[in-house]
Input
Amino acid sequence: MSVQKQSVSFTDTAYTFARELVEAGEYPNVSAAVSGELAKAKAERDRERTLLEAELERRLSLPLDQWEPIGDAADVTKGARAHLAAMAKKT
Output
């Protein structure tokens, strides 16, 4: 495994958390704490993505007569359209 050196800045809260992890003995130093916690975050995102993909595959494999109705298609995007309209007014 290669190591990439990078200078980063932390908020006081993030740095305090990293120091607490080191002081608790979970990591030998702040650099290891940051790397370790990023690895955990990536693993959690990968797990969530895998679960979502499996659920989508499960639902898509259902026969059409077992699909739940979603109502009017315009209702599905109504919130997004309102948000985009509000953003357009700001510019």
User: Anything to note?
Assistant: The radius of gyration is 22 Å. The chain has a mean pLDDT of 92.
